[in-house]
Design brief:
- The chain has one domain: Four Helix Bundle (Hemerythrin (Met), subunit A) (Up-down Bundle), CATH 1.20.120.1760.
- By secondary structure, it is an all-alpha fold.
- The protein has 7 helices and no strands.
Length: 238
């Protein structure tokens, strides 16, 4: 009887804590969405002005990528503050190139270039953290790169078959290799990179989480492909 009472007391004490956690995550989600919406508006306004100047989206993509590559060097030297600045600049330019394209003309090559440089940038950052502390980070970085490649290859294969079959279904997964449609598109990935630059000792833990999310993304693409390329096709034939 006393054990049952103790269990009830524990549950009663946990309930307020669960409610506070739920409220915290709800407020955090709302805040992230609002910040994301505001950043899109700012990027769009900046994109309009850049278009008027005559700078192309592809030029902005390439310049932002080059700046992002410097992060690898700074990470290898354990100069995390400089790496942080390079990562932020890269992400700002990544937002700007999309805004420029939307306010001028979206091209197939521009979409290809933006996605390709994004994947190379993220892989480079992972490599940079491995160089910073090989003994501590190498295994976690290898796992993350494995998961990263799995997500990238599954998306690439899906895109190839979709183009071949002239499908128009949207997978609704963003360009970031870790994006699963969470709080605010690629916001979680950016936060993870910023946190790693501030607290690099957490690389192993965060890399494992991001790696698992990338693998989940890869398998979700496989499930989507099976539905679109097998089940949906059977329905059309019937």
């Amino acid at each position: 009887m006393s054990a049952q009472l103790n269990l009830k007391d524990i549950k009663d004490k946990i309930k307020p804590l669960q409610l506070k956690i739920k409220q915290f995550f709800g407020k955090t989600t709302d805040f992230c969405r609002k910040m994301h919406d505001k950043s899109l508006l700012l990027a769009n306004e900046a994109g309009k002005k850049i278009v008027e100047i005559g700078i192309s989206a592809n030029a902005v993509s390439i310049f932002g990528f080059v700046i992002g590559l410097f992060a690898i060097n700074f990470l290898s030297l354990e100069k995390y503050g400089y790496a942080l600045i390079c990562i932020i600049i890269n992400r700002v330019f990544d937002a700007l190139d999309g805004a420029i394209a939307r306010n001028s003309k979206v091209t197939d090559f521009g979409v290809f270039l933006d996605a390709s440089l994004d994947y190379m940038f993220y892989a480079g950052v992972i490599f940079g953290f491995a160089l910073a502390n090989p003994e501590q980070n190498a295994i976690a970085a290898s796992f993350l790169l494995f998961a990263f490649a799995a997500a990238a290859c599954s998306l690439l294969a899906y895109a190839v078959i979709s183009y071949k079959n002239n499908f128009h279904q949207d997978l609704k997964i963003g360009q970031s290799p870790f994006y699963l449609g969470g709080l605010a598109q690629g916001f979680e990935t950016l936060v993870a990179l910023l946190v790693l630059c501030v607290v690099p000792s957490l690389f192993m833990q965060i890399a494992i989480v991001l790696g698992v999310l990338s693998l989940v993304k890869a398998f979700s693409v496989i499930v989507t492909a099976y539905y679109n390329f097998v089940i949906a096709q059977r329905g059309k034939k019937e």
